[in-house]
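Suppose a classmate hands you a notebook page containing two proteins, each written out with its sequence and a corresponding row of structure tokens. How would you begin to make sense of it? This section walks through that situation. The first entry is reproduced here exactly as it would appear on such a page.
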Amino acid sequence: MAEPNIKTRILYIMLFLSAIFVLLPDKYTNKANFALSSLVEIASSKPYTIASETSDQIEDIIDQDDEYNDLLRKYENLLIELNNTKSEMAYQQRHIEELANIRNEFSFGRATLVRAHISAEDTSISRKNKIVNRGSRDGVRPGLFALATCETYEESNTSENPTATVWKSAVAGKIISVSLTSSAIQMLNDPAFSETVIIKSGRGRQDSFESEGVIYCDGKGNIKVKHVETNCPVKPGDPIFLKASEKTMPIDIIIGYVSNCDYNPDNAVLWNITVQPAVNLSDIKDVIIVFHGSEE
């Protein structure tokens, strides 16, 4: 006789269980049904509960990561601000030291020195003007002169490199127009710039002299001094000063050096003098405005 297959065995088991449930009292049958339904409910709901709890934990981790990244960004921004503040403090300290050097170098008396920042270059006109962030509300007025840090000049006693007097700061230009919060500086290389200057003998010269002239800029951008007679022994390297007056500067201030000196082709009794400015006019970021004299 052949053994029953698997389906037949399952059918026998189900019939046996059905008979048991039929024969059992109702209270046991109800308990068995309740247990079976609870088991089915647990088996069906647990996987979703686990998945839901896992999802919540992942979201918490993501939220914590976002908070960490936000704090990290704030920390990096604070570091940037701190470095910027340190740079600004160092920048201000350098200019305080420069201002102190000027005060030690010159006897300005009752003159007031005010630092101004070059905010833009005036490109609306052809003249070499620069705009500073000081205006009439700061007391600035036309005619005041602006100083800037000098280029470095090494002293020498050779004929190839004549001795040049070393200065900390020099004239860069003068105020020509003023608004409430800004002013325009007319630089030395502006064709309209013209002031009385004094040429003095350089350090180490045996033939000491002083001679007045007028500084100006020709149409080719060369800074010149005119009206100096050839009987004055001017040589390359001699310093040129802006002449002091009651309404401009309290003392003579360096403006440049004689870079070339030859006879004037239009007038043999006058020198044709070319000037090397003591200030690098193309790289000025800050100036010091000298308040001296009255508006009258």
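The notebook's second entry, a different protein, reads as follows.
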Amino acid sequence: MESTKPEGAILCVDDEMIILLSLIQELKRTFGERFIYERALDATSAYSLIDELARDGIRVIIIISDWLMPGVRGDEFIEVVAKRHPEIKAVMITGQADAAAIGRIKTNKTVIGVLGKPWNPDELSEMIRRSVDG
């Protein structure tokens, strides 16, 4: 049986483990072994994980990040990632951001979408598909 190499990694960042587990479960159900699925509970851990994956030759394709997290908000996290790694796309999920914050998030060229919590799994999958498949 021929094994295919994953196209890259999808990194999920949220301060709630249950959200991370749910996201990864949904992604695996939709995309199977097409990607590597990683998770981080905060922005600091996510920065380290992105660097570690890069050292291992694994390219992070998309980050799915919560907006309201301790320490660094998701929009600030995505801005830093965009400066360091402009090729990484992002999806923001939020149950807390107001219209002004969502407007700022959407101005970031790396952000492919903003979803409310609870998110629609089909909508999230379609955003990822459009981003990676062109």
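A careful reader of the second entry would note: The two ends are 29 Å apart (CA to CA).
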